[in-house]
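Example 3.2
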Amino acid sequence: MKNVQMIALWVLVVGLISYTIYDKRFNKLDYDHYQDGSWHQTQLINFKLPENLSFAGETVPLDNSSVRQRLDREFYVFMFGHAGTAMTIKKADQWLPRFEKILLEMGVHPDFKYLPIIESNLSNAISPAGATGFWQIMPEVAGHYGLEISDEVDERYHPIKSAYAAAKILKENYDKFGNWALAAAAYNAGPGYLEGTIQFQQNKSYYHLHLYPETARYVMRLIAFKSLYENPTRFGYPISKDNIYTAEPTKTIKVKETIPDLAEFAIQNGITYKTLLELNPWLKAKSLTVKEGKSYEIELPVGAKPISKDSVQVEKK
């Protein structure tokens, strides 16, 4: 009996020694990963905000504990978003360079290229309130900024045209409120709401205003995603360049006559109807009526080649 107890005791001692050695080695490996930037998920839990942050050239007041806690939340949401965050990073380069060019052209800070990620995750989403497209523009706002909405066309789904409209809105907001953080808040909640809020609270700092929950998170989410996108490895997403999606090269053709059948139009241009809609999501119907004196620009793949109508037979039901 004593021999059995002695054996059990030795097994326990050896086990404890082995565990201690393994634990120290494991922690050293994790620390090494931390040091070279390849963070293990356990290190992300102990994430600390960078010492300095800015958005649109404006310094974020990190000395305020409430601001730090709100930012912490958004960083954690993106860092532990896993598949969703990874896919957003992978597809962002398909659009962000184009949006940055438009924003600069319109006098808007290029950091706002991240806005359609916060608004729609770069998808033609529709909000419960009816805001639509990458830039989530409301129907009553669209017409004022030159976007057509009809039975056949909804240009809020046009990523480039709606980007120009969004840039105009942001520039007007900036001219009205005097800084980009408030311009972003006004884009989300509306300039009327923000103006009334500022007057009531007698405070003109976005970071110190009591706002709708969504608006209070809005700029924080922009700051967090900007930081993550510009240094993805640091925040747990070491995605290699060859895994990043890039925009397919396209060409634009001007259409001045009505297209009675968009599926046949696609076939005549050497592409599928599906490809036509992927490149031109603003097309809502199966036809496109072009009124006298008006024209539309349709994007096609660079390699698309018009083919003879007689060489294709389209079966109609």
